[in-house]
Write a structure and sequence with these properties.
The chain contains 8 helices and 37 strands. The chain has about 750 residues and is mostly beta strands. It has one domain: Maltoporin, Chain A (Beta Barrel), CATH 2.40.170. It is globular and about 90 Å long.
């Protein structure tokens, strides 16, 4: 089955690429003839997350598009920091190097991060300290869909999807043969120095693109009350580049790009002493004994950091009229080679790697009885390693036997999906369905037996009696059998479906209702974790490993499937001086997977948590949105906010790390060469907490931006900008963070820079 699906996906991709070398149309182009106007009208756009130009304001789900000056002013070092503050989006921060967005109370792996419609495939879904491999300085736009996109992008998008729009593969020829831009900036709070540039050159029907960036920042400043003026190990530096090209005609493009990213960033709040933690039955024990060594003695003065390298190849194509009846074809192929080392002082404790091949093909048919829709296939094959690997600095012991080296988690996933849309008078109807087949196999690491002749002579008589003359082979076979039982093959076949309707009340107002059933298979860490997570100071036990930790824990099977039924109601006004979009949501989750705290151990002097992945039934509900009013031609006032409420219905407790309510106001002035913005955000306290959490105090943030444009009337110009965040230098802790108490938000920070385009 797996081989058949793989060949099917690759065959369709090849057909789409080779059979349509000269045709193109955006997904939004009209096709077919108009039907009876009294009954139906042809929907001229398929509602997808695709390119920035395809974002449809009439989607049944709230869709935020961040681009232009708004994106330029909000860009921070990480994607989470860049998006935090938008309605419904909070932050899961990990110092200055890693930050993940939180949408409606949930973060990765329940949010899918896409690169122009293709999955990103870094390892940010495995642990919160792993950075999302996207540089905001090189993005043209960001699309954020709040609500389930699982029917199109799989179960990891059950709570939303974020699509990163870049220009590394040109989709159009430069208007004057050459276009590009550059930006340089300096930050006071972390001594940030960053620069980025890009250029696209047109040569006949070919377009060549090159871009790159360099960013470096020191430990960032934190407000009074934290205990120090700088957050240790919050530094970050990185550089990267992309080289791409495409063949473009009036109807289509096909192109490819190679991208490289290198990064190094610190892990604040980390304690190396976690390396000695292990379980004794249901208890966590963190004292060094019996082979659990502490390479540093008792010192935590060294730096803990991550060294990251990521190489990626993308192939993209968009064509029209590929086959009879096909309006548009989209191809996304990618190869990702990712690796990072978690370094503690002079030692490498863990190495993560992820090598993934992915292919996705979408075919959009022309109107049939008023319906316009997209059929797609996706095949993914990857090899991952990193969890349960610690203490790489230690050599295989003399006079020992066991596994030497990491195990690899080999994943194959095949998916098919279909979406359709049609208008019935004033009502736009859309539905989608996706089926996946996923399998994870865990490879057995190499088995070694390293005994000195003296020790072997001592052991041999006893082992011969127990295992026979071939005792070495028997020990190896028994070890392998035990490993396979503890790391069973995992198979899942999630099914997701959604239906939505948008009622266009008039040219200004619309109300939309969306219903979705989403299924998500647990990720590798949720399934197989068994050991220390050095960055979060925790010892983690996955769903398949609970019985291994203790026979008193219930046996968790590999077929756990997180199932979510959700309802979204969106009310929007898109015209006139007053505009708004407000979304209300309700989610009923069966077998919600999360890490429950069993106990905290303080034997080493640093707290270490014993986390057991479990399931529980839960409900999410809330509201988010914003309303804007154009006060005058030059000024606009916006009020925004969000609220999430959760209930664990299967037990008397609360879910951990749920964001508190938030309310904000923003004033913008755009007059002549000057653009100015100031915003105030109040984040309420969070006292609705899990039994093992602590409450988080409320805080206020004041941010502002001033931009001066040298030529405000020109389409492309040079501008100088000053961006200030947390201007009143308030100490703030993020409740959604795994290292909340060790990693507060940045203190006052001023970013001065210049950007230009040509």
């Amino acid at each position: 089955m797996r081989r058949v699906m793989r060949h099917l996906a690759l065959g369709v991709a090849a057909m789409a690429v080779t059979g349509s070398a000269s045709v193109f149309a955006e997904e939004g182009q009209e096709g077919g003839s108009e039907l009876d106007a009294d009954a139906t009208r042809v929907i001229d756009k398929v509602v997808t997350i695709g390119t920035l130009a395809e974002a449809d304001a009439n989607s049944a789900l709230p869709l935020e598009v961040l681009s232009g000056a708004e994106l330029a002013n909000r860009r921070q070092g990480g994607l989470g920091e860049t998006l935090a503050g938008l309605p419904g989006i909070h932050l899961d921060n990990f110092g200055g190097g890693a930050s993940r967005p939180v949408i409606r109370g949930q973060t990765i792996p329940r949010i899918e991060i896409l690169s122009d419609g293709a999955n990103l495939y870094d390892v940010s879904s495995v642990a919160p300290d792993h950075a999302i491999t996207a540089e905001p300085l090189l993005l043209d736009g960001i699309e954020v869909l709040r609500g389930s996109a699982a029917a199109r992008y799989g179960g990891n998008a059950l709570n939303g999807a974020i699509n990163l729009i870049d220009g590394k593969i040109p989709k159009h020829l430069p208007e004057h043969g050459l276009e590009g831009g550059a930006e340089a900036r300096f930050g006071t709070g972390d001594e940030e120095a960053a620069a980025a540039g890009r250029a696209t050159l047109g040569l006949g029907q070919f377009a060549l693109h090159v871009e790159g960036f360099r960013r470096a920042s020191e430990n960032y400043a934190v407000p009074d009350g934290f205990g120090s003026d700088k957050l240790k190990d919050s530094f970050s530096e990185g550089d990267g580049y992309s080289v791409g090209g495409s063949w473009i005609t009036s109807k289509g493009y096909i192109g490819a790009a190679y991208s490289r990213l290198d990064s190094e960033y610190g892990l604040p709040g980390h304690s190396h002493k976690n390396a000695v933690c292990h379980t004794h039955g249901t208890d966590l024990h963190c004292a060094a004994h019996g082979g659990y060594g502490d390479p540093f003695g008792s010192s935590d003065d060294h730096t803990a950091k991550i060294n990251l390298r990521a190489d990626r190849i993308d192939v993209r194509a968009d064509y029209a009229d590929v086959l009879p009846g096909i309006q548009n074809a989209r191809v996304r192929l990618s190869y990702t080679d990712y690796e990072h080392d978690e370094i503690d002082g002079p030692f490498i404790f863990t190495t993560y790697s992820n090598e993934v091949y992915d292919g996705r093909v979408e075919l959009t048919h022309k109107p049939v009885s008023g319906f316009v829709g997209t059929f797609g296939v996706q095949y993914t094959e990857g090899e991952f390693t990193g969890i349960n690997v610690n203490d790489l600095y230690e050599e295989f012991p003399e006079n020992g036997w066991g596994f030497d080296g990491p195990s690899y988690h080999q994943t194959e996933n095949a998916g098919i999906f279909l979406s359709e849309a049609r208008a019935f008078g004033a009502v736009d109807l859309e539905f989608a369905i996706r089926k996946d087949w996923r399998e994870i196999d865990v490879t057995v690491p190499p088995f070694r037996m390293q005994l000195t002749p003296e020790i072997e002579a001592l052991y041999a008589p006893f082992f011969v009696v127990i295992y026979g003359e071939n005792w070495k082979e028997v020990l190896e076979a028994n070890s392998i059998e035990t490993f396979k039982k503890r790391n069973p093959t995992s198979k899942h076949d999630p099914l997701s479906a959604s239906i939505g309707a948008t009622w266009n009340l008039d040219s200004d107002y619309s109300i939309a209702l969306s219903l979705a059933h989403s299924e998500r298979a647990p990720n590798i860490r949720e399934l197989y974790a068994y050991g220390n997570n050095l960055a979060t100071n925790s010892y983690e036990v996955g769903l398949t490993q609970s019985r291994r930790a203790s026979s008193s824990f219930p046996v968790s099977t590999t077929d756990v499937l997180e199932k979510t039924d959700s309802l979204n109601l969106t009310f929007r006004k898109t015209q006139g001086p007053t505009q708004f979009e407000v979304g209300a949501f309700y989610m009923d989750v069966e077998d919600y997977i999360f890490a429950r705290l069993i106990e905290t151990d303080d034997e080493t002097g640093s707290p270490h948590n014993y986390l057991l992945y479990v399931t529980a039934d839960a409900k999410f509900s809330g509201i988010d949105g914003q309303i804007s009013h154009q006060i005058s031609q030059e000024s606009r006032l916006t009020v925004f906010g969000d609220y999430v409420h959760t209930d664990m219905t299967s037990e008397d407790d609360e879910l951990p790390r749920i964001p508190p309510a938030r309310l904000g106001v923003r004033y913008e002035l755009d007059k002549g060469p000057i653009f100015a913005e100031v915003e105030f955000i109040h984040t309420f306290d969070q006292d609705r907490i899990a039994s093992y959490e602590t409450e988080t105090d409320s805080y206020n943030l004041v941010n502002g931006t001033v931009t001066y444009r040298l030529d405000p009337d020109a389409e492309k110009s040079t501008e100088f900008f000053l961006r200030g965040t947390n201007l009143f230098d308030e100490l703030a802790y993020v409740h959604t963070s795994f290292v909340k108490s060790q990693s507060p938000l940045r203190g006052r920070n001023l970013v001065l820079g210049v950007r230009t385009s040509f």
